[in-house]
UniProtKB/TrEMBL annotation:
Name under which the protein is recorded: Ferric uptake regulation protein
Biological classification of the source: Bacteria, Pseudomonadati, Pseudomonadota, Alphaproteobacteria, Hyphomicrobiales
NCBIfam families: TransRegIrrA
Organism from which the protein derives: Pseudaminobacter soli (ex Li et al. 2025)
Keyword Secreted: no
Entries under InterPro entries matching the protein: FUR (IPR002481), WH-like_DNA-bd_sf (IPR036388), WH_DNA-bd_sf (IPR036390)
Length: 173
């Protein structure tokens, strides 16, 4: 299901206050992935792995780190995301040439991308069927197919004070 932009904005705001993963949990996760659990990596891991799967950019995490009282630079966050990605803890999603988006769900799935908002959403499992793939060049095999479905908003927001028919509070009988 696709959320409308107003709801996604609220969700993003709510995510800043999401619970952080515990320090020992993140340290273990880093060690299991072969990474040394430095203070900065643990701080970023706590923000990333505190809740359900999510999509983030380095800028998102910088804001969340500030909100959580962690003093981290954008460069540190960006480098750490690169290390996490190389270690297989997160996956870089190629949707935007200018900003790198990362997914904490490293499993096979496809994405919606709302370009105007820089927002990445998961396509529900089974939402895309790739029925015919090209034959790869000799000596190569296909490892993964990433589909990005790009979206643009078509319905304007209703004017202030004029609620959509289905969005108002319902009267109780
Ligand atoms: Zn995803």
């Amino acid at each position: 299901m696709l959320l409308v932009p107003e709801e996604t904005r609220k969700r993003l705001l709510a995510e800043r206050a999401l619970p952080r993963a515990s320090e020992p949990e993140v340290e273990q996760r880093l060690k299991d992935a072969g990474l040394r659990p430095t203070r900065q990596r643990v701080a970023i891991g706590r923000l990333l792995f505190g809740s359900a799967h999510r999509h983030v950019t380095a800028d998102d995490l910088l804001q969340e780190a500030n909100f959580a009282g962690e003093m981290l630079s954008l460069a540190t966050i960006y480098n750490t995301l690169g290390h996490f990605s190389e270690a297989g803890l997160i996956r870089r999603i190629s949707v935007d040439d200018e900003r790198a988006h990362f997914d904490t769900d490293t499993g096979n799935h496809h994405h919606f991308y709302i370009e105007a908002e820089g927002l990445v959403l998961d396509v529900a499992p089974g939402g895309i069927a790739v029925e015919r793939l090209p034959t790869p060049p000799e000596g190569y095999e296909i490892t993964r197919v990433d589909v990005v479905v790009r979206l643009t908003q078509v319905q304007p927001e209703p004017p202030a004070g004029q609620a959509m028919p289905d969005s108002g509070p319902r009267s109780l009988r």
